[in-house]
Design a protein that fits this description.
The chain is α/β, with parallel strands linked by helices. It has 15 helices and five strands. A five-stranded parallel sheet has the order 2-1-3-4-5, sandwiched between helices.
Length: 330
């Protein structure tokens, strides 16, 4: 039996040391000792990535360190994938992809491994795939299903387009990733056939998908119109809000604002599309913790951002209502 705690400790030390060779050697050692490939990916690689994200959140790691760690995790995943590729194909073909604006391929690569280990023939389209490209692949290869990984809220609108494109061809979808939260609410709102909280669940969900699905139910017209307008105005709004928020602000807040403001606007857009205001309350909590870990008065900073958003979004009534009621620290 795999001693996950011990292996995870060895893996994390190698990542901290920036020792890619040690990561490769450890992965191969585990595979040679007959460890289950998914135990390695889920219990070690994915678990370590969550820890790395928490280190960045606490201000202990830089973005550069986080990217280097992800590169090592990708190398480990590719080694595991090469072993899983030997699994006989016993199911149909499934497309594995990330929606446009989603560049985090590692979670999707782990899902691809889980599906391949369960006998699926997978076609990986990679990160930030356009709806047009997905539609072309659906037309060309006629998959039994499409699996979409979405880690960032900004990719939920294009994930909806993926779901629409798949369903219009009668192809079911299984979705998952951090952007969908902890339950199926957002997935169901976007019209996905199934939601999975992790890679193993994705394989289980894929095995239970219907053969054919109907076209998705249209979203409310006022929601679609306002979300589209927000998307078109995103760069201007980001610039306006960020400039007002950082005036006279602590340097630590200035450093965070570049990522925090667009993320917050994406949270508004996601709340509109999914009718799930938790995207805003979760973003406020994330931002509050991020600022507090950097020595900023987070309640005051989040309150300031909320006030600025309410003014900037004056032409977006549904968005104003969401921000007023849900973007605040508890």
């Amino acid at each position: 039996m795999l001693d996950l705690a011990g292996v995870l400790q060895r893996y994390e030390k190698a990542v901290t040391d920036g020792d890619r060779q040690a990561i490769v050697a450890l992965t191969e050692e585990l595979l040679d000792s007959q460890c289950e490939p998914l135990d390695i990916l889920i219990g070690v690689v994915a678990a370590a990535q969550r820890g790395i994200g928490e280190r960045w959140q606490r201000g202990e790691w830089t973005v550069a360190q986080e990217h280097a760690a992800t590169a090592m995790a990708t190398a480990a995943t590719e080694i595991v994938a090469s072993r899983i590729a030997e699994t006989p194909v016993t199911r149909g073909r499934i497309i594995v992809t990330c929606a446009e604006r989603e560049w985090h391929w590692l979670p999707a690569a782990i899902i691809d491994c889980a599906l391949r280990a369960d006998g699926w023939q997978t076609t990986a389209l990679g990160p930030a795939t356009s709806p047009l490209r997905l539609s072309q692949y659906i037309h060309d290869i006629g998959p039994a299903a499409v699996a979409v990984s979405c880690s960032v809220l900004g990719a939920l609108p294009t994930t909806r387009r993926f779901i629409e494109a798949s369903a219009s061809a009668g192809v079911p979808t299984v979705v998952g990733g951090a952007a969908f939260g902890v339950d199926a609410v957002r997935a169901q709102a976007l019209g996905a056939t199934a939601w999975a909280p992790d890679a193993r669940s994705a394989a289980e969900a894929a095995a239970s998908l219907p053969v054919v699905v109907s076209a998705v139910v249209p979203l409310p017209a006022d929601v679609v119109q306002e979300q589209a307008a927000l998307e078109l105005d995103h760069l201007r709004l980001t610039d306006q809000v960020a400039r007002q928020w950082i005036v006279g602000a602590d340097p630590a807040l200035r450093a965070v604002a570049r990522d925090a403001v667009p993320h917050t606007l994406h949270a508004v857009s996601a709340a509109l599309l999914t009718n799930d205001p938790r995207t805003l309350s979760e973003t406020a909590a994330w931002l509050g913790a991020l600022l507090a870990n950097r020595g900023v008065d987070s309640p005051a900073a989040v309150e300031d951002l909320s006030r600025i958003l309410l003014t900037a979004l004056i032409d977006f009534p549904l968005s104003v209502e969401l921000v007023r009621n849900h973007f605040a620290l508890n």
